[in-house]
Design brief:
The chain has 124 residues and is an alpha+beta fold. It is built from five helices and two strands, in the order ααααββα. It has a two-stranded antiparallel ribbon. A hairpin with a 2-residue loop joins strand 1 (74-80) and strand 2.
């Protein structure tokens, strides 16, 4: 049985609403809904808690968890510390690494041009 079905059946067996289960886990009702639809999977900590609450073994390896469906666009976010510094939308089938390399090259060129313009403007 897949994880999404096990969560749904376990919750139904106990007569719990998604909201009640979410409250016990300290997550949103939407998170429980996504787990049940198979569009997302619970973290290892939440899988352990779900296993205890539902009386079902959900300790499956991440590789066997249902894949999260790909959206039409992927978003690549480069972060500086904890703050996203740059976000890039990718078209379906576009290679993430190639797009990132191209973006880095474009940024290097822009930085060089900016530095050249700044040094030219600071010269009397």
């Amino acid at each position: 049985m897949d994880m999404s079905k096990a969560i749904r059946e376990g919750r139904d067996r106990l007569g719990m609403s998604q909201e009640a289960l979410a409250e016990r886990l300290g997550v949103s009702r939407q998170a429980v809904s996504k787990w049940e639809m198979g569009t997302s999977v619970p973290s290892p900590e939440n899988r352990r808690a779900l296993s205890e609450i539902l009386g079902t073994d959900l300790q499956v390896e991440r590789e066997t968890a249902p894949p999260v469906p790909l959206r039409r666009w992927k978003r690549l976010t480069l972060a500086a510390g904890e703050t996203p510094a740059l976000s890039l939308k990718l078209k379906p089938g576009e290679d993430v690494l190639e797009a990132a390399r191209n973006l880095v090259e474009d940024l290097k060129l822009a930085a060089e041009e900016s530095a050249a313009a700044a040094s030219a403007g600071s010269t009397p």
